[in-house]
Amino acid sequence: MTVVDLYQQLIIEHSKRPHGEGLRSPFGAEAHHVNPTCGDEITLRVAVAGETVGDVSYDAVGCSISRASASVLHDLVVGRPVGEVAVVREAVQAMLTSRGADPGDEDVLGDAVALAGVARYPARVKCALLSWSALADALLRAPGPA
Known about the structure:
The protein has 146 residues and is an alpha+beta fold. The chain has helices at 3-16, 64-77, 82-96, 106-109, 122-141; strands at residues 29-34, 41-49, 52-61. The chain has a single domain (3-141), classed as Sufe protein. Chain: A, CATH 3.90.1010.
């Protein structure tokens, strides 16, 4: 099995059995984003405890790339400091908007590196970035440390 096959399998698995799916309470902020190009939608909730992302939950309707990206997002950000989450989000965005020129740093991207192939398909980039944009929006709305 090649690395490409492994990445494709990872996307399929996250799409079929998404991690973190289902809106949960309590949460500090919620964001709803829509990709008007294809109709993908996500409502994402974030709970921040101190400086750490305590939980991310979501309800996503869309293609396998959009749903897999949200699932990978959940795995990568829950339990991490908000500052680290921003670094990961920026790395994902850079990788996906590079048109394949930036494969990204696997140490930073974790399983999100499986989405690198999406960068070669500009029409699908918004699908993969939808949940990450909603996360950025929700984190801006979330109450800060007391």
